Amino acid sequence: MPATARRTDGVTPTAPTAPAPPSPGLHTAPRVDLVLLGVAVASVSFSAPLIAATAAPALAIAFWRNAMAVGVLSPVVLLKHRDELRRIGRRPLLLAVAAGALLALHFGLWLPSLRMTSVASSTALCTTTPIWTTILLRMRGHRPPRMVWAGTVLAVVGVVILTGVDMTLSPRALAGDALALGGGVAAAGYVLLGAEVRRTVSTTAYTYVCYSTTALILLGTCLVAGADLGGYSATTWLQLAALTAAAQLLGHSLLNRVVSTLGPSVTSTAILLETPGAALIAALWLGQLPPVAAYPALLVILAGLALVVRASRSA
């Protein structure tokens, strides 16, 4: 219909409507972003084993990995991104702060679960993030392809199998599973908000606001809970530094980098690859082998991941 034509519904358009830009996905993303995504997943795979091996309170570990990251980013932000932070709009700023609050909730739930259940189980349940991402996207009006839903359902089946494995172990392990699952839900909100903020804000500026918020919230939580924030051995401080470098600065920051081009569904789904990565590292480093019945569950979760990735390629 021409722009000047009269419509029967009483509304006269003022200009032709431009076609909507394609949604971010694997088919439109630069190849370098796929490489960065792989590096990010490999980096966050060190998170659970390092946390399990670090002799410090779980909440303190969560605080220090964010506080140390803020310390590393501060000189870069002050030198190169100070003007951007001054010009950042109210909405992106509030969304970045909200993302930081959800990241704090994610860490506050997930890290204690690592001391209550196995690394493989905790990581698998926490990385159900794409399931909740898909549901939240649907609630916002997006219509994911059927294959995404099929992959999501298959991943849920794997989660149920894995939870059943821990139910046969102890009530404490089941409680740890519940905390890890809550951490996965919080992470979904964190990824979705990050994707929105990254439309207009650089990776460095966004991560700085987000990590600062997370660190402040976790600091207050540690003080209220009475978690010791110091007095650690040199080995523990080195482990905290390694966790910050690998999982936080490389892992989470690179995920924040690629989420604007790959989209929240692909980014959050790829995090599921952390599950076998963390399990392998935990087996080789900590000698912590998951129960035999957990392996089929992990395979089912990865099969769901494969369906979601395939759907994203053809979207």
From TrEMBL:
The keyword Ion transport does not apply. Keywords: Membrane, Transmembrane, Transmembrane helix. Residues 1-26 are annotated as: Disordered. Signal peptide: none annotated. GO terms for cellular component: membrane. Residues 34-163, 175-309 form the EamA domain. InterPro entries: EamA_dom, EmrE-like. The chain crosses the membrane at residues 34-56, 62-81, 93-111, 117-136, 148-167, 173-193, 205-226, 232-250, 262-286, 292-309. PANTHER family: ACYL-MALONYL CONDENSING ENZYME-RELATED, EAMA DOMAIN-CONTAINING PROTEIN. Belongs to the EamA transporter family. This is EamA domain-containing protein. It comes from Streptomyces agglomeratus.
